[in-house]
Each structure stands twice: as structure tokens, then as C-alpha cells.
Amino acid sequence: MLRKRIIFTLLYNDGYFMQSRNFRLQKVGNINWLERNYKFKEIAWSLDEIIVLDTTKQNKDIRKFASTVEKIVEGTFIPVAAGGGVHSLKDAELLFNSGADKIVVNSALFENPSFVKELVAHYGSQSVVASIDHKVVGGNVELYIGNGTKKIDLNFEDYLKHLAELEIGEIYLNSIDRDGTGFGYDFSLIQLTREYSQVPIIIAGGAGNENHLLEALQKEEISAVATANLFNFIGDGLPNARKHIINFGENIANWDVNK
Length: 259
Known about the structure:
Number of helices: 11
Structural class: alpha/beta
Largest sheet: 8 strands, parallel, barrel
Distance between the termini: 27 Å
Low-confidence stretches: none
Mean pLDDT: 93
């Protein structure tokens, strides 16, 4: 059985990292601030993976973003997935050359599926993560692209079938409703997602404490939990959460994080 994973998501926006609530962003600090105040490279020992997403809405600079990814990768020694505004193999190659192990795609899944197929054919399914940003409104699932700014006219089941045809390697299932709230994850779409896809599911949006992470990892359908909550989970939060989850016997890697 594959080990489950704890993932930290960093939200990047034009040179700065952001705190998000329901996809409304607030500037926190640049990469030097992150390392100086939170010793991020030390905290990374408590993680299995990092996801870095470029949420810049206008004038995205893929080279500037790639340079930030390169700085994050340096000294972390764990897999890093990067995405946000990846529209070509050239963009993907730049991020891979900057140290990324996977590419995260969102808008291209809907707007340019031929590119996603090309990406999968070139780098393999294991290197491509499909990010699904969603809301549940009146029992109906609404899907969004473009950093949550553009609703797409497709139902959830059909979208999952579409992703299966693209042969992506993982699904990053992110709740806009729960994002940054600390109220816990939205599990309402997990069973349905598994019905239409057998790839690993990463759940994101809503984690506020270690018990939220544990609750999600205890679900058979979920392969990984992600949190982007800087203030709840940096400091002793991540090491303590990992110890808590290990103590409950969950199948995650157990190593000495006090290195």
C-alpha cells in the first residue's frame, strides 16, 4: 500500500506569498521573509511534498515564478509540484529545469486539453496534477478555472470523465467554500470522484488543525492532504501534526524530523 502524504501548498503572487480565504488573497511576505520568520526549510522535513501555485492574475512572469520555485527547492529534498499559468511545453520545461517534479494544471484542463495530452505524453501521467477548484451551491457542484474567477459550464461527473481521458496522474480537489476557513475539509465529492477516477486524490481547502488532517487521511479514498494555512501549520504546527497522525497509526512516512 502506498504511503499517504502531507502536502503544504504555497500560494505565490507576483513575488510574494499569500494567505487565502475563499480565494481572496492577502499578502504575507516574499521568500526571504518566509524563511526568516518561519524557517521553512526546517519545517519541510515534516512534509512529504510541496505544491507551489502562481496565483498572479495579470502579467504572469513564468521566469520569475520559476526562479522562486528554484529557491524553494534548494535545500528541501522533497518533491515539489508547481503550476499556475502553464500553457506550453516550454513553460513546463522551465519549471522542471528549476527543480519541479510535477506540473499542476487547472485552466488548461478545460481551455486547452490538447496541451495537457501533449504534456502527459511528453513527461508521463505521474508528472501531471489536475487542480479542480469547486464550490457546492444548493447541492450542485460549480467548477472554476482562472484562480476561481471563471465558472465553467460542465457538470462534475462529465468533468471527471474528461480528466480520465486526459490521463492525468493526480487530482488536487480544492474547495473554494472551505479555503482558508479552518473549518475542516469538504468530503462531499470524494466518493463521486473515486467513482470516475482511480488516480490519487489530494484534498485541499479548510484544514485548520491536526485533527482535520487526520480525519482526511483516515479515509481510504484520499491519498494526501494539503494545507495552505501559513499561520496554523508553520512553526511547531506541522511537526506536531505529523507526530499526531503517526501516533494514530496512519500509513505515512515516519522519520526523525529533528535533524
